[in-house]
Specification:
Layout lengths: L23 H53 L4 E2 L4 H6 L9 E9 L4 E8 L2 H11 L7 E2 L6 H7 L9 E6 L7 E7 L7 E8 L2
Antiparallel strand pairs: 1-2, 2-3, 3-7, 4-5, 5-6, 6-7
Amino acid sequence: MTVPRQPSSPDRSGAPEPPDGEGGPARETEARSHMIRRRWLTAIIIVLLIGVPAGYLVISANQSRNSGRDKEDKYSATGLTAGWPSRVQRRLYDVPVQPYSEEVAYYETNNWRTSRLYVQFLTSNAGLTRFLQQIGSKESAFKADDITISERDRNVVGWEFTGPGPWYGLTHRQKDPAPTLDVVVDRSNAQHPMVYVVSTTTP
């Protein structure tokens, strides 16, 4: 006689129960804790990767802006504008400001009879040589203690050539309508001459 097969209990799945420490509520708690830690670590890394460079950029921007304001304040009282003249101005007035120059500032005046561009820049000895070559002059044309920029033009932009120097000057005249350039150089820094130029054109 065959005994009928009893149905499985609805509370039993047929699979063996996992031993303690393998699955179940304890393992789920551990997995959830690990996931939370991983998410926190990921969030911290993202903040560091994005926040630190962003903070550096903000600080750099503020420093650059403050430096620009200092220059503007320094030159505003003299009429000079901190920065480079436009390419058109440099070409029309034949004032090739050298690359990598510092303390660059300019001022332009115009009337029915003459136009002038006042420019200053700090350059290297090689930069000064290139500047003179580009305007068609040379260093031997300089004369010691010759302030070729007139007192009237100095007063326009507040240039005072009273430092210890040594000072050198030249006047580079060209055939109209090309401009005439009055150049004064402060050589107090033997490696980095300060160049002052007044370019005058007559329309």
